[in-house]
Structures
1.
Amino acid sequence: MRVLLLEDDYMLSESMKLLLESENIEVDVVHTPQEAYEATFNNKYDLYIFDINLQSDENGIEVVKNLKEAGDNTPIIFISALTDIKTIKEAFDVGADEYIKKPFEIEEVLVRIKSKYNRIIKIKDIEYDPLNGNIYKNNQQIFLSPVLKNILKELIKKRSKPVSKNILMEYMEKESENALRVNISKLKSKLGIDIKNVRNEGYMIE
């Protein structure tokens, strides 16, 4: 799991990073809205953890609004010292999954992540752990290349809905539809799952 943490308290952000990384969660830390935009432009994340109050012209809620308008629907946990109903309502209106009030025990963030996102996803005899990205078939761990693992993650995230070929090809060194077809075939062969080519839309797990 890869998380983007937007927090301008340097000590808190470092403590959170160390705790989450101890649980095999990859964490990128940014301290300003501009750094957050650059990080989301260059990388894909499974979860955002954003502070609302920032020493900036924009707050965390406004950053999420802008990301949503750009088509980014990454799950979001807000952390904030603000406890008024107006702010909490605004946070959930822009799509917050959780709202953690400061001060909090750092471990609470990990508990919230595990309870909400650490749900094993089952596809026939395949089990996928979204928290650490591990894959099991008949209780035996399956090891995939980074490209295949990322393609599988995208297909699982949009389960029962097609994922565009352009999104899937972003994970390959050389983007081409032929190379994507080869990787899809490898994935089907290794896992024994059905992946359908939906004409003019992309691929999806059946």
2.
Amino acid sequence: MPSDYLMSINQAINYIYQNLDKSLTVEEIAAQCCFSKYYFNRVFKLTVGQNIYSFIKRIKLESAAFKLRAAKSRPITTIAIESGYSPSNFASAFKEYFGVSASVYRKTNDVPSKDSFATVTEHIRNLKKDEHAFEDISAKIQIKRIAGMNLMYKRVICNYTKDLKEAWHLFCEEMETKSLLDKDYLFVGISYDDPLITNEDHCLYDMCIVVDKPTSANVHRIPAGRYACYNFYDKLDTFILAFNEIISLWLPYCPYKLDNRPMLEIYQSAIDAQGNIQAQICIPLQDN
């Protein structure tokens, strides 16, 4: 796939995520890439593995499912509107996709059950029995404002657990080749999918490096904003456990409201001699 095609598809995906609350058409998205509707749909399916209609439906409904799990105080009607549905259309679309109503899903899916993530499910269930779990997680979290950033990114569709370590290794080599790894470089990850909800082999992820000035179209301009930042220092294999501690045991019961900006993983060190990595998992919060 030519690099300019990949760049155009990335721009289309970014546009979709930035407009999940709208009823998007293929013509509108194709116009963002200067492609015809039919040619764009072929290129998109070849690159992403889904046609554009299926992709939009998937991320709208799976993003809604994530909010049902993490933002328990947010009304289902609000989540429907944020997903670009009327409440009645959302109810039928959600039940068709997940097999249960949104209200039932919210009640029963603090941690969606998958055989491949049984360790995560068991970890959260055990912590829920600990009356001090919320306070222990809160002790690792700082509420702070993060300055705006320009992030040069490379996007992959992969299995977070199996594929990201090698993908990051190749990305670092590429950044070193481009002489971007000066003494002040900072890596940031953006995960778009919850693998406990999404097919874990189809998860979207951006590996990023902070740059002063954009040098290509593959740059996210992240605005300044407020985040709940969880301080992580452990083996990479436990990263998903920490993430789910925040989502299942802290965020639904904290006094803050989840924002629609992407979550950020800010890496503060390489893997050290003990096999641990230092990072912050940053959850976007609404300002009011």
3.
Amino acid sequence: MVSRFKNALNSGKFVIATEIGSPKGTNCEKMLRDIDLLKEEVDAINVTDHARSVLRFPSIGGCLAIKDQGGEPILQMACRDRNRLALQAELLLAYTRGISNVLCMTGDAISQGDHKDAKSIFDINSAQLVKAIRLMESGQDMGGNKLNGAVEFCVGATVNPEETAKERELTKFARKAEAGAEFFQTQPIFDLDNFSEFMEHARQFPVKILAGVLLVPSARMARFINGNIPGIHVPRDLINELDGLPKEEALDRGIEIAAQTISILKEGAICDGAHIMAIGKEHVVPEIIARAGIHTMIPEF
């Protein structure tokens, strides 16, 4: 069965996705509130998979909660923590529970997280996971064995258009696209001219691109992101703009910047959608969408 998210991607509309973080523990109250708030506002909700290698409630648990509440989940899967047996088994479980969208990620280094003595797996990388899913859809596992019941997913991957090693990043992007990725969610973008150049390259491939739009609510948070989250760098001029503003004014300015970015992306037909990352302030995502002038009703098919 084709997922609602895939239908949205193929409809020609400007797609909006977002993400929620899982709790560090079993208290899921905030996560459930965020799901209830966002499920009618966006086309799909990602659940992060131990982002920054920090132990959290599992992505598949959050995705099941989204399904239970009538939303459209995107299962994030980091290859860092599982070998190919465990990854394939989780995909089988996800499919039988109606989870139809997967974002394949290699995963942040263990050294970034809160379990420094943990052992990284990295049996396969994200491009190989994409390829494995396509193999499973044909009714075969990675060991060459026949599956008694295949899967069907809308498969995505990640890309960082602002990576300084551009040629290497573009090569990785092409490898994932050629393996069968249908959509890409980017790391946060700040340089729209640079992103437009990336899109000229990306349009060579039959994939949908959702630009990562990060809510930066304060200069303090921006500095934390720059020092602690790999692959993201908030520009100095944005930090200076937020510096010294009272808390609520800084948040309002961050919301406005995110909304303006989305509006420019949509009006300029630069890409196929946006992926909003609010990092703990998921409650303001509907306001970002409203200020951007986006209508996100999921089309019926």
4.
Amino acid sequence: MEKSLSKAERTRGFIIETTAQIFNKKGYAGTSLSDITEATGLTKGSIYGNFENKEEVALAVFDFNCAKINQLIRDKIEAANNYHDKLLVYSKVYKDITMGNIASGGCPILNTAVEADDTNTLLKDSAAKAILKWEKNITDLIEKGIHTDEFRKDTQIRQTALSIIALIEGGVMMTKVTNDFTHMDQVVHTIEFLIDQLRS
């Protein structure tokens, strides 16, 4: 039987979920305490009674936003019939993110990495861990595809994984700053071509 959440846990969860889109759209620096209290309807005391500071809220929100996207990706990967299609899930999901169909505000990893850079070590570290986890997940899929003879044995595994991530994040960034969705369309086509080349 699943353990019921305490009032404090429920409040923390409410704050995180309610402010997730705000932080993803406005960023850490752009999100004020007033934004948080206005969105949640809670007082400053209630916010700081559950989180040490705004940074702690931002870190929890980042994890929440990434987990939401990762769960969607896992579900779609599980439903795909082969490793070629499983790899394609990433570009398709991030295209939906770019179109605003998922994770309003865009990719939380890109948003956080660009904003934090050298100004916020904790947020920067969280973004770095998310990228490394993403790389590992793609690497695992490629390795399994090689093991089942779906992909070529001479596939450059890490190079391919990093190229897919760089293409996706570059496409998200270019689409966001130009508001031209054809950028992401072209990137998705390039990723499809790249993954097609892996086939035995």
